[in-house]
Specification:
This protein has one domain. It is about 80% helix and about 0% strand. Helix 1 packs antiparallel against helix 2. The two termini are about 15 Å apart. It comes from Microbulbifer halophilus.
């Protein structure tokens, strides 16, 4: 049996993929990036749903969005030269601490 936390991590990584994919779809006017983005969305929701069978919904949803937020923000810095201002990086760090805290305090 696959760990619900592993499934949740996969769902979060796929969320990063579809969030970044939205940039490349150019408003869903580019067919291949659009199809890949939609497939990543479906897969992300599927893995999230599987993880939520064992993880409380509040914890699971917060971790899923946290992984997506942090990953998308970091890749935005790397791929699109987005801001690396210290307050922004500090806030990303706070999200990481929140994800870790939810995992450490979860019963699942």
């Amino acid at each position: 049996m696959t760990s619900p936390w592993f499934l949740l991590t996969v769902a979060g990584l796929l969320e990063i993929g579809w969030a970044l994919g939205l940039k490349y779809t150019q408003g869903f006017t580019r067919p291949l990036p659009s199809v890949l983005t939609i497939l990543a969305m479906i897969a992300s929701f599927y893995f999230l749903a599987q993880a939520l069978k064992a993880i409380p919904v509040g914890t699971g949803y917060a971790v899923w969005t946290g992984i997506g937020t942090v990953g998308t923000a970091i890749l935005g810095i790397v791929l699109f030269s987005e801001s690396t201002a210290l307050p922004r990086l500090f806030c990303i760090g706070l999200i990481v601490m929140g994800i870790a805290g939810l995992k450490l305090t979860s019963a699942a």
